[in-house]
Amino acid sequence: MEANAGLVAGSHNRNELVVIHGHEEIKPLKNLDGQFCEICGDQIGVTVEGDLFVACDECGFPVCRPCYEYERREGTQNCPQCKTRYKRLRGSARVPGDEDEEDVDDIEHEFNIEDEQERTKHLTEAMLHGKMTYGRGHDDEENSQFPPVITGIRSRPVSGEFPAGAYGDQTASSLHKRIHPYPVSEAGSARWDEKKEAGWKDRMDDWKLQQGNLGPEQEDDIDASMVDEARQPLSRKVPIASSKINPYRMIIVARLVILAFFLRYRILNPVHDAIGLWLTSIVCEIWFAFSWILDQFPKWFPIDRETYLDRLSLRYEREGEPNMLAPVDVFVCTVDPMKEPPLVTANTLLSILAVDYPVEKLSCYLSDDGASMCTFEAMSETAEFARKWVPFCKRHSIEPRAPEFYFSLKVDYLKDKVHPNFVKERRAMKREYEEFKVRVNAIVSKAQKVPAEGWIMQDGTPWPGNNTKDHPGMIQVFLGHSGGYDVEGNELPRLVYVSREKRPGFSHHKKAGAMNAMVRVSAVLTNAPFMLNLDCDHYINNSKAVREAMCFLMDIQTGKKICYVQFPQRFDGIDRNDRYANRNTVFFDINMKGLDGIQGPVYVGTGCVFRRQALYGYDPPKGPKRPKMVSCDCCPCFGRRKKKLAKPGANGEVASLEGVPMGSLLMLCSDMDSFPFTGVDDDKQLLMSHMNFEKKFGQSAIFVTSTLMEEGGVPPSSSPAALLKEAIHVISCGYEDKTEWGTELGWIYGSITEDILTGFKMHCRGWRSIYCMPKRPAFKGSAPINLSDRLNQVLRWALGSVEIFFSRHSPLLYGYKDGNLKWLERFAYVNTTVYPFTSLPLLAYCTLPAICLLTDKFIMPEISTFASLFFIALFLSIFTTGILELRWSGVSIEEWWRNEQFWVIGGVSAHLFAVVQGLLKVLAGIDTNFTVTSKATDDDDFGELYAFKWTTLLIPPTTILIINLVGVVAGVSDAINNGYQSWGPLFGKLFFAFWVIVHLYPFLKGLMGRQNRTPTIVVIWSVLLASIFSLLWVRIDPFVMKTKGPDTKKCGINC
């Protein structure tokens, strides 16, 4: 499929597929003939029979005979395209390793004697074709001879590409030899041009000069130290220093003991004249202790990690050899261009396209769930600007590679720059970007006024997504091979626009449904084994971020058991003091490090690199099990040796399916009657279970086949038209019906915080996740700095947690069967679902000080000197725990304090509403729709921070503030009236009230307005002091003459 060849729109259910041409200008393609060697450029030549010479039977990569001989003698002996080992052709000398090819001799080629396994393999492939294409209509007539897909036995190399050609072309497929089916820069073929492979070509030229004097293999001149370095682990754990972590653990244990004694004292010493207040405080304190345990103990084993990018390059990017880094598909989601500005999304896409990773290994997919023509046109402009921006970034090693943030950096941009033309090119690129911004802003401005007849594309075709709730699926490839080149003629990563089909009456599952649609469409088109998902406002801040993740996922020893690598979220545009704890540093730098030492961090929705097989619901590979002890017949063993008896088959032989590839099992399952093996009933049941693959993944043959390719790649026998048809099919609105999508596969449905559920399911299967914190933040995004927007964001997260708590995936009840989830990891997941319920005791506890001040009662009796030690020890343990936690994590005390403040603010507002809405949804079925958080920024510095937006979430904290302030005034006035003896009990109540006021201070500051007005603290103290002095003035009443007379209390009124 060519880049910019047209927008493909269609509906599988309605049997519609159209290609809209003319909307984009088609770029001129390079002259591709495929009759020349892709390594040296010479003509390929013919064999003695007059046929074109074919070096590789698997993919037909164009290589001449001399290059083939050289590669077998002195190279890797592998095809540069499909990495398959070159077989010895007739007339070629044997080389070490040919004996492993079952000693196939020339005479067998002469008489075309096929191996029995090959015959069986073709038969099973035909079975698969017949099984997996039922109900899907007629396939290509000319390709009906062979199945359009094969399993993971042979697959096109994982390069993120698929075949070029017009949509109507049907490339003939075969499981035998193919004579150059793909041109130079088509799918899967590395671009062996002179710039990239100059070293390889020079070696080839030197070898050609010595063709007549070929000797034994030359000694490898690679430095031994480099070889040893390449064999080292790609990452390592960095444990926290024992001088920091051991005191921290000791204080945690001490605090737990002190807490137990404190609660015992509180329960055994009730306040009889305020039993209601005392009982309420006891319940609240017990809940706070329980939530503290859930939050604290998962932080028992915190660790750091470091990666070795140089070792990754030495192992997978050797000079003169094809790049062996694994391909990566990048997913970006957007919905509403008015709330998620296209310019913000464009910067994210540009940072992805310019990332430091092989272009043939990278594909970027944008999911437009709003089917907006504004987003589509902005993406078209982004693709055009990327042709200039990407080479500029790579030539000058620009960081970050999002132009908006690069050009706004207030740093010395000339640091470490040595290119003489850098200043001139930077100035020209900045002007290009400003022109690009103007064009995108014009598109957004035009989109705000929708024509009555709907949007019309440039060729006069109505925009298929005019009805955002009823439109076909749409796919367009903007960049990639066959037209996806930058201004310097270099290939660019693939950029694909996807808008899934939407129809009335179908449940589309919001973001989780969009992510699952992208998983399927990417599996059909590129099928990279790893996937990175980003929010539309999270750009790549570190161009080596993908390589950082590969250091874990591609590690030979531990990589196979890792389901995802999570990066911390970092944010731009937050006020200096971080008033509402938007950075969430305590969670990302403390809690997540602790989880990394157990079974891995939770998935937080963005900045995460997944293993595709883990999202498909597969279990992690099992390590070798220890042999079980068997008992003998002797008395001490108290048992007998048990022998497994195998049931003989029809011919008296026992057949076992252990070790049979999954792909072969699936093919054999297509026809049980012709099943070539006869074995035990358990094996037959195993085969029958594989017949549910289509029920599990859906009725797409190509997609189901892709799920079996652990190393990625797309079926080589699929034509471009077939791939497009399947891509439209897998994003149709009814594809997931009666499948396991959203329940066991992909992003899990059932909560608006689908990220927590998705990671939880993977951990329950036994997978492990990794937390990666490179020195330069990998990704950066935007956060709502306005108080109302921030509370609405927290409300959405808390509501999702409540939904999980009441669902069948509740961590309290789910995942015990297999025992794969570790207990401390379960504690963390339980804490993520129960923390909103803390709002109920927190609301009551924040109200108690005001009630105590107004009623002149207290929640505690008069304490003795011994009892006061419990309180002193508890407060000391709390502060010491916090200080030691900050010591090993590196979090500042200011960030920790902001987190504590917003815990109270969010607890008495957003979390409280989340609990109420969650209960309404569970008990009454009343669903609540959440709105997308606005990513738009204010031109004024932090102008959005001071904007006041009314929401009902502001009512509870405002009420708590007012009643506590009134309580302080009432308590002080009462003490003034009653004399000095009442000041002692008042101090405890005032301390309690001021604890609440200080925690709600950022909230009150948000209500007050901008900083250039009267400071908030001045207003608060002015009101308090004015009220207190007024009452004191009234009490003293100095201007009223005091008359002396008898004391009526002693002698009565009639004295």
TrEMBL record:
It holds the Pfam family Cellulose_synt. Pathway: Glycan metabolism; plant cellulose biosynthesis. It is a multi-pass membrane protein. The keyword RNA-binding does not apply. The chain crosses the membrane at residues 245-263, 275-294, 834-854, 866-884, 904-924, 945-966, 986-1004, 1016-1036. Its main location: membrane. One of its GO terms (cellular component) is plasma membrane. It is found in: Cell membrane. It comes from the Eukaryota. Binds 2 Zn(2+) ions per subunit. Its EC number is 2.4.1.12. PANTHER family: X-BOX TRANSCRIPTION FACTOR-RELATED (PTHR13301). Belongs to the glycosyltransferase 2 family. Plant cellulose synthase subfamily. This is Cellulose synthase. It comes from Linum tenue.
